[in-house]
Amino acid sequence: MISDTVVELSRLQFAATALYHFLFVPLTLGLSFLLAVMETVYVITGKRIYREITQFWSHLFLINFALGVATGLTMEFEFGTNWSFYSGFVGDIFGTPLAIEGLMAFFMESTFVGLMAFGWERLSKGTHLMVTYLVALGSNLSALWILVANGFMQNPQGAAFNPATMRMELTSLGALIFSEDAQTKFVHTSIAGYVTAAVFVTGISAYYMLRGKHLEIAKRSFRMASLFGVLSVAGVITLGDALGFVGGHAQPSKLAAMEAMWQTEQAPAPFNVAAWPNQDAHRNTWSIQVPYVLTPLLTHTLDSTVPGIDRIEADALRRIQNGIPAVEALKTLSADPTNKAALAQFEARKADLGYGFLVKRYAADQDVSKATESDIAKAARDAIPNVFAIFWLFRVMVACGLLMLAYFAVCVIISLRGDAERHRRFLKLAPWMIPVPFIACEMGWLTAEVGRQPWAVFGVLPTWMSASTHSVGYMIFSLIGFILIYSIFIVVELFLMIRAIRQGPHEQGDGTSPEHGQRVPAVALSRELCASSLPNVKEL
What we know:
By secondary structure, this protein is mostly helical. Helices cover about 70% and strands about 5% of the residues.
């Protein structure tokens, strides 16, 4: 049996690398499309200032893109090194979208990024604009395939367990790709990236306006990003509601944890605005409730019952009892694949096979036939994720979303009035808003992943079975190593970003600077960035 400590360290290491990487992803997704919008305005109007705007923000995009690639390279390898049983069990399904994502990221996306960076003087306006849109498309399609893979983990579709091979196998690529969870999550994540980019651009533009530098570029950037942002934040809130609706059907345990709903309430159920969940006691120590709100919020009806944790645990208990014979039949089939009685028993109970695996953790010698009532009860309690963590992670994310909605409403009003630079108090707030969308994205990711526990693939494969048989010492050493390396990447990102922002658009643009009257190559920073970042990629 794999040590619980190794499993937890494996989870912590993947969480650390994913959280670091996800600091770069939303800005790449959003800034790529915002660049395309900016360049479209340049091509339509022919005004050179919009070319300077596009080039400046593309420099910051390139810094973020290069370091995002560097931090993302190791994550796919972690499935093989730290989650070997998982890779073998679902590799037939999980590997398909990851392989396509690799082609998108390293062939399509990276090729067009190079053309976008170095093609200003070599391509026509229309061709360069097309390349910029292809960069945006490639970035977002790359995210699509990652989220298709993650969507399978959240709500497994298009796959079935084959007792002959003892692994999950792909049965429908269409069902895998067009899973409701995957598609809703993709749109929600992409639009969250647009919000991130809009806050980033408005924050830096406000910084320039406060200092009276690059005013024309700053004001125009602020206006475009404000309009882009207010539409995006409205979209991300709407899609967040849709994702909760879809996820609630696929993972009722996560939904109940998000709302700290221990008991099944008669519809319409009350909504916990704030609470202090107590997992051991299966109740909230205290809570602030709004009556009748939860049911319409989650089900979009007034009379649908929202299952509480009590009902979900009872259902898990039943499914564990039903899954134990499936695990026993599987053990017989592994020794004798032709055993018709065992095959019939497995086929009758296979829907609950994953729940049978849950109790192996507690059964003597990992033999489910020896599982006691106490073992089954422990496994049923495991079917509920960490309620306290999910309840508050979700609320931090929602609070950030509402804050950004209010922020962009003000941004749009002052930018459309044409006097944004006069609102100095608000402009001083804008740079401090830059971390908010990143916090929201991280909280959203944690809500999704922590809420899936105790499953690596929901209802199919428990997390405790999925890890590799490493030593505790190895896991601690590699965890510390990854944290140190990724922390260096964050420092490099901040250094390059701050230096580029301080230099400003004119000093590194390829147009004639109104302040200096001299021409500076547009790709100078890009060349320097590529020269400094490529060795890091090779080392990884």
